[in-house]
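Hello,

Following up on my earlier ticket. Below are the two sequence lines again, exactly as submitted.
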Amino acid sequence: RKEVEQDPGPFNVPEGATVAFNCTYSNSASQSFFWYRQDCRKEPKLLMSVYSSGNEDGRFTAQLNRASQYISLLIRDSKLSDSATYLCVVNGNAGNMLTFGGGTRLMVKP
Amino acid sequence: DAGITQSPRHKVTETGTPVTLRCHQTENHRYMYWYRQDPGHGLRLIHYSYGVKDTDKGEVSDGYSVSRSKTEDFLLTLESATSSQTSVYFCAIREVGGQGPQHFGDGTRLSIL
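Thanks for your patience. The regenerated structure is below:
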């Protein structure tokens, strides 16, 4: 079993749609969780950290479920510019290392 | 802008030649990392550093060595490049405390023929 698993997609959605991604992780001791966005041929960029209480940043909402060991990302009112790969990231067995999921590709269509 | 510069940005070289990639940061962060990213594998950690002259292996360290003689520079060396090392290489730094997110450089596209 991979440490961090994501559905690779692609998720094809129309502009204005709401789309949700889930990610599961295997290390129950993990303490830090993040969502990154990666555009084609570019570096990963931090989208948001994920907190136990859930957090929201504009159209983006992240949730953490420790009991079931999954993280979710909800994108409301999708824009064409949201098209990218979204990486779920969890701190690994060693506290200073991160484990990356394989990414979920989102394509927003006009 | 996380203040990370990778060089070179692109390189094409031949099998068996040595290659050194450089990562330079301007923000005095303690932790620095080298990853490679390949289709179907995602980001995989090669080596990381937790201070000057302090380095450790990651998931895919075979064939790679690193050095960190100054806080701001973290070098990745392929002693004798192989075609399987064709990849995109990313350097990352991590904020104080070691529990925060990592921030990435622009990447180096390395092709080994």
